Amino acid sequence: REEIEQGLEKTRQSVFAKLSKAVAGKSKVDAEVLDDLEEVLISSDVGIDTTLKIIEAIEERVARDKYLGTSELNQILREEIAGLLKSKEGADSGFSLPEKRPYVLMVVGVNGVGKTTTIGKLANQFKKAGLSVVLGAADTFRAAAVDQLEIWSERVDVPIVKQAMGSDPASVAFDAVQSAISRNADVVIIDTAGRLHNKVNLMNELSKIKRVMQKLVPDAPHEVLLVLDASTGQNALEQAKQFSKATQITALALTKLDGTAKGGVAIGISDQLQIPVKYIGVGEGIDDLRVFDKEAFVNSLFE
Ligand code: GDP
Q: So where does GTP get bound (predicted)?
């Protein structure tokens, strides 16, 4: 809880300060407060559509109750936002592993968002939980991607399966899953190339990776995690929309929340795409990945 607050410090300060300003000197929620609130939400990167949804809900509430004090506004906002966030309650909403192993996690996202770092952090969490992990370097497009993943595999001390640059990503994914099976590993995490600029290619590449892995594990991948950089705000929302068109995304990780006031983007993305945020990145270190706790997130915005 405290750690999430630290990670969200910039968003928290910004949202809370703007919100206090919006209601300063007012005793009731009127058109002006709602206008100001709309501005606060949009400037916190909640996104226009989701902001309007929230404002409408509050307008309805004002109409129904005739009078709504500004002191109640916080509480209502919290409820509305919590309702839009798709994550389950409580701090246990990370990935739940099926009985059957290996658990196959495919990770997608454009370069620079923190994909490799998130994979490293996740591998570390799985390992700490007593699970054995294999990494698959299926981003064969960039040599740097494989190198970076290799550094993480050494840091976390988990095996990595790779092939030469430019080799078929699906072949790497197959090898990685096969290696996981032969080692009796619990988890295999597949890194993929996130080249959004050619959506047809991306779509074909990701579906081929899935198809090939399914020869070994019929229900693989168990999760497709999209990594997004929260500090890019509405761009992150746009990327999420694009990736959703290319493949079925089942979970989101929002990185770099520690350095940004744009944390509101979690609300917009969750609402617009109906995909749960499962993890948030709150720093560059190995332990700076948190399971996304909806309650703590909402609380940290308004306290
Ligand atoms: P990739 O290209 O998507 O694989 O991105 P990387 O994992 O290499 O990360 C890009 C940069 O973002 C690196 O400098 C990371 O240390 C940094 N980074 C990743 N996640 C976070 C985070 O949650 N917070 C901060 N502050 N930096 C992060």
A: 109-116, 191-195, 255-258
Residue 290 amino acid letter: R
The response to whether residue 194 sits with its C-beta less than 6 Å from ligand 1 reads no
Asked whether 250 and 227 are in contact (CB, 8 A), the reply is no
pLDDT tens digit string along 117-174? Answer: 999 999 999 999 999 999 999 999 888 999 999 999 999 999 999 999 889 999 999 9
C-beta atoms surrounding 282 within 10 Å: 24
For the segment 12-36, the average pLDDT, to the nearest whole number, is: 83
7 lines ligand 1 (CB under 6 A): no
- Asked whether the whole model's pTM tops 0.95, one would answer no
Name the binding residues for GTP.
Answer: 109-116, 191-195, 255-258
For 257-283, what is each residue's pLDDT tens digit? 998 888 889 999 999 999 999 999 999
For residue 138, what are the β-bridge partners?
A: 192
Rounded to the nearest 10 degrees, the angle between the axes of helix 199-213 and helix 169-183 is 30
Q: What is the DSSP letter of 37?
A: H
CB 83 within 8 A of CB 296: no
- Within 8 A by CB and 6+ apart from 217, the residues are 102, 104, 177, 181
Half-sphere exposure of 65 (CA within 13 A, CB side): 15
